[in-house]
Amino acid sequence: MISFDLSDADVELYEAARRMLLTAHHSENHRVAAAMRGASGAIYLGLHIGSKRLNVCAESSALANARMAQEASIRSVVAVSMDGHTEPQVTNPCGLCRELLRAYGAGITVLVDAAGEVGKVGLAELLPFPWLRAAETEWETLPPRVNPI
């Protein structure tokens, strides 16, 4: 369920990502910035790194920074990209980032753009059915079948 009841910590996280993007933005190489808050309360920044053929998302570099700092877990994340007036705005994580973040904790909250209003949701709501190998589940999946009417 989305919540529009943001905290000072949520706004602080957005501001950290915003400052990073304003400092480092480049229309091809650095289009998105991200900020993550760890369980310790520390904020870790990330920046999109791109070229014509390869892109590394800002969320993944923020996550790498957190892990290099030995952060135990991630509590919240936000990504920002430039709008048409060169002002950073919240942008929703791509599918790859949703999957990557889910591997580091389903309890992460994500600031999202909900049709022009910033809200926050749990990562599990953004990716309710993550990709898993059959051997990684705690259940056995039955083959599909047609239910009789």
Question: What does this 3D model show about the protein?
Answer:
This protein has 149 residues and is an alpha+beta fold. It is 27% helix and 28% strand. Strands 1, 2, 5, 6, 7 and 8 form a six-stranded mixed β-sheet that branches. The longest helix has 17 residues, at 8-24. It is globular, with a radius of gyration of 17 Å. The relative contact order is 0.16. The model has no long low-confidence stretch (mean pLDDT 90).
- What percent of residues are in strands? 25-35%
Largest sheet report: 6 strands, mixed
Give the helix level as a range of percent: 25-40%
Q: Output the radius of gyration.
A: 17 Å
User: Number of DSSP strands?
Assistant: 8
Total count of helical runs of at least 4 residues: 4
Helices and strands, in N-to-C order?
HEEEEHEEHEEH
Looking at the structure, what is the overall shape?
globular
**Low-confidence runs:** none
Mean pLDDT: 90
- Rounded to the nearest angstrom, the distance between the terminal CA atoms is 33 Å
- Class by helix and strand content? alpha+beta
What would you say about this model in short?
The chain contains four helices and eight strands; from the N terminus they run αββββαββαββα.
Structural key phrases:
149 residues, two-stranded antiparallel ribbon, alpha+beta, 6-stranded mixed β-sheet, 28% strand, 8 strands
Q: What's the arrangement of secondary structure elements?
A:
Blueprint: H1 8-24, E1 32-38, E2 43-47, E3 49-50, E4 55-56, H2 58-68, E5 74-82, E6 88-91, H3 95-102, E7 109-114, E8 117-122, H4 123-126
